[in-house]
Amino acid sequence: MKKLTILITIFFFNLSIYSQAPRGFYIAAGFNQTDLKSSDLLSEGKPGFYASVNMLMGYHENYNYQLEIGYKQNNLDVKYVDGDFSEAKTSKYKYADFNFGLYLNYYILKPEEDEFFVGPQAGIFASLLDPLTPSKGADVTGQYYLPYLLDENDLSNSSKINYGVGLGVTGGYNRFRFDLRYSLGLANTLANVEVNSYNETNTYTGPSLNGKTNSLTFGISYKIFAFKK
User: Fold this and answer.
1) Strand pairing partners for 161?
2) Using an 8 Å Cβ cutoff, are 65 and 107 in contact?
3) What is the DSSP code string of 133-196?
4) Mean pLDDT within 63-88
5) How far apart are CA 193 and CA 134, in angstroms?
6) Angstrom distance (rounded) from CA 69 to CA 54
7) pTM of the model
8) Is residue 80 within a helix (H) or strand (E), and if so which, with residue range?
9) Would you state the pLDDT for residue 84?
10) Tens digit of pLDDT for each residue in 79-102?
């Protein structure tokens, strides 16, 4: 038993010596643009931002794991008509999300000191969402959002959770690194949004609305704490 313990200790000690994959805590910030893909709410994604704290861990020189806790500000231009229905216009909406992600980074160019490294990235995420609200507290009274003529109260019932997958490219140089990632949301953001269609018993008789998000993010991170090898 003592010999087995010694062998295991030696094994992990050697891994830690020869591992070159970055490990430690990073702070990150960057650009984010989220689109809501839906024929039940006509909108267009606009630039936003994100910030996160990332922990990179692992002992292999070719890959490591990236755990993220982040905040994203998502902006949408939503199409609407007003009371006279004469012209379609756009109204600015926003929602924030607090997200948790776990990603695998695989390095084609291995991380070495004073050398550039890069490789693909893939993983999963889950998010807690704020409801859709007008940007800057704008007064949107009399705005009816296409195509079902929804109003602000209807949109406030948007989903409070999201989850999905992310694919991208990661790389860096010494303490700096970047992440370029496409994230596909799998939850129905409009699942709880209803049009004004109820029968005499107040049972909903309208259609089930559907909409899923996809996001493109690019961020730069800086290592603030390194795990000892």
Assistant:
1) 128
2) no
3) EEGGG---TT-EETTTTB-HHHHTTS-SEEEEEEEEEEEEETTEEEEEEEEEE-S-TTTT---S
4) 94
5) 16
6) 7
7) 0.86
8) strand 63-81
9) 80
10) 999 988 888 999 999 999 999 999
